[in-house]
Fold this sequence. Notes:
With 182 residues, the protein is α+β, with helices and mostly antiparallel strands. 40% of the residues lie in helices and 26% in strands. The longest helix has 17 residues, at 30-46.
Amino acid sequence: GMKQRLALARALVHDPDLLFLDEPTAGLDPAATHQLHNTVREMSRSRGRTVVLCTHNLVEAQALSDRVAVLGEGRLLALGTPSELARRMAPRLEVSIEVDPAQKEAAVRAIGSDNGLSVVAERGGTVRVTGIVRDAVPALAARLIGAGVALYRLDPHEPSLTDAYFALQQGRHGERGDGGTP
């Protein structure tokens, strides 16, 4: 961790216009990682510097990056903002719905399993729907309300950069999703 900190300090001391960071948080403790993230944000957003971050940490890439390039076997697989890539590569959402617990089964029946949806009744008044496209969420809410279900909360979980990465890998390697050759 100390060698990593020293390397970062040496890279930052000259306040470069362009900075390449390769796995910059490898070996850093959480406090140092947080400090590095703040430094990268400040350099790129406040000072207008360009930071190229090479990382396998997709959560970090999503949090710090304005644009992401996904590479595979030396080729560019996808390019865009983290949210663009997530929506393009993993267009189906998971939606958590909170209803009156007494109406949970009515909600499951109203939603149905058409269009490839998976519906699971969970604890209390929560129903989880997976496989829904973003544009179908308002119709889902209307269907529940039309069935007389008391809808307290509808929380769509947007796909992440990690979801996009796995969708890309699945597309490249077939349905196995294990990264191996089909």
